[in-house]
């Protein structure tokens, strides 16, 4: 039996090698201000060695996401010292307006929806920054789904092709971010409105636009993740017929 050798092969990647063969990989990814870890190895001992090496090299806090149904993987991370921080529900959302009830939903008076790809980057960044700061000052940006980007210094330009926006008097007053394979299973990664424009139906109109666009492209369902503590978002998506498909746990090591 050959010894396992763990090597950091790149800034964000570690390999476990046995007899010149890679038997495990560890990676990190930065999302929403968090360093997320992932380890790919079917051998429990290799997983533990990769975890030990990565934890020794990286600053804390560290995070990982696991499918709640994967008890074996969850227990491995718990063995490495991680604890459960929060749960995200993954929803499948129908796109057919007959199922969602959104077919007759229009933006409030004076508000128009600009489709993905047509938004201007500067006002898009302005509303994104406003939303980011409001969330960060209340529940914290770390409660957002991990795939939603934060705004670190030197952040790259926001990609207007992923955002539809609500506009009132030349000001962007809401946005919806759609990613993934839009013609197969689009993912609603962010649906948000600044606090001074909430409770007017803007978010519902943006959701109607995003789902309607997907339906016209022949897509039957979109997906999204919602923190279980976000009652307003849970109510919005379940109110349009979304069903829970799975749940993910965010684990943390402080």
UniProtKB/TrEMBL annotation:
Signal peptide: none annotated. Gene3D superfamilies: 3.40.630.30. InterPro entries: Acyl_CoA_acyltransferase, GNAT_dom. One of its GO terms (molecular function) is acyltransferase activity, transferring groups other than amino-acyl groups. It comes from the Bacteria. Keywords: Transferase. Pfam families: Acetyltransf_10. This is Acetyltransferase (GNAT) family protein. The lineage of its organism: Bacteria, Bacillati, Actinomycetota, Actinomycetes, Streptosporangiales.
